Automatic annotation (TrEMBL):
<dbReference type="InterPro" id="IPR029039">
    <property type="entry name" value="Flavoprotein-like_sf"/>
</dbReference>
<dbReference type="InterPro" id="IPR005025">
    <property type="entry name" value="FMN_Rdtase-like_dom"/>
</dbReference>
<keyword id="KW-0560">Oxidoreductase</keyword>
<dbReference type="Pfam" id="PF03358">
    <property type="entry name" value="FMN_red"/>
</dbReference>
<protein>
    <submittedName>
        <fullName>FMN-dependent NADH-azoreductase</fullName>
    </submittedName>
</protein>
<dbReference type="GO" id="GO:0016491">
    <property type="term" value="F:oxidoreductase activity"/>
</dbReference>
<dbReference type="InterPro" id="IPR051814">
    <property type="entry name" value="NAD(P)H-dep_FMN_reductase"/>
</dbReference>
<feature type="domain" description="NADPH-dependent FMN reductase-like">
    <location>
        <begin position="1"/>
        <end position="142"/>
    </location>
</feature>
<keyword id="KW-0285">Flavoprotein</keyword>
<keyword id="KW-0288">FMN</keyword>
């Protein structure tokens, strides 16, 4: 079982990366194989639809294709998800995401909550065939300390429950493929 975590933030001290790191640790403690995609450390070229550009993103396409489930997280920027995330998923096709269990997490500053980010992510992820789970998590910047680490235990627990759901659905779909 492999779950790929996709971080839509490239900012230093990113709250998005922080909550995904906590989810990463949670899943690894359950002996789930995790692939943490961090575009800050491994950036993608801007998508232009050419073969040459797609070849440079082959590692990313393969990571999504080989995942049994995805957890996609983004900061909310201007009532939407990050451009980094949009660019990354422009490389991905229906073939890589069809019926792939996908959970979503949004982080936001200023008390806005990230709901618009989640709505936008849901639309584009469904558009490429992902099986987007109804449970979602939105976390305001005020719920993180200066490190940053999410300090709101209830919100952390919601993120962990979301990851449990992604794993559960991935296992159910795996059983269905076998039968």
């Amino acid at each position: 079982m492999k779950i790929t975590l996709v971080c839509g933030s490239i900012r230093e001290k990113s709250t998005t990366k922080a909550i995904l790191s906590q989810v990463n640790d949670y899943l690894e403690n359950q002996n789930i194989e995790v692939n943490f995609i961090d575009f800050q450390n491994r950036p993608l070229p801007m998508f232009d639809g050419t073969k040459e550009t797609k070849e440079k993103a082959a590692w990313w396409i393969k990571a999504v294709d080989e995942a049994d489930g995805l957890i996609v997280a983004s900061p909310e920027y201007h009532n939407s998800f990050s451009g980094v995330l949009k660019n990354a998923f422009d490389f991905i096709s229906f073939d890589q995401t069809h019926d792939k269990p996908t959970g979503m997490i949004a982080t936001a500053g200023g008390g806005k909550g990230g709901i618009n980010c989640l709505n936008g992510m849901r639309t584009f992820l469904r558009g490429i065939g992902a099986l987007v789970l109804p449970q979602q998590v939105a976390i305001d910047a005020g719920e993180f300390n200066d490190v940053p680490i999410c300090t709101n235990k209830d919100l952390c627990e919601r993120a962990f429950q979301l990851s449990d759901e992604v794993v559960r659905f991935a296992k159910l779909l795996e059983k269905q493929k076998v039968s």
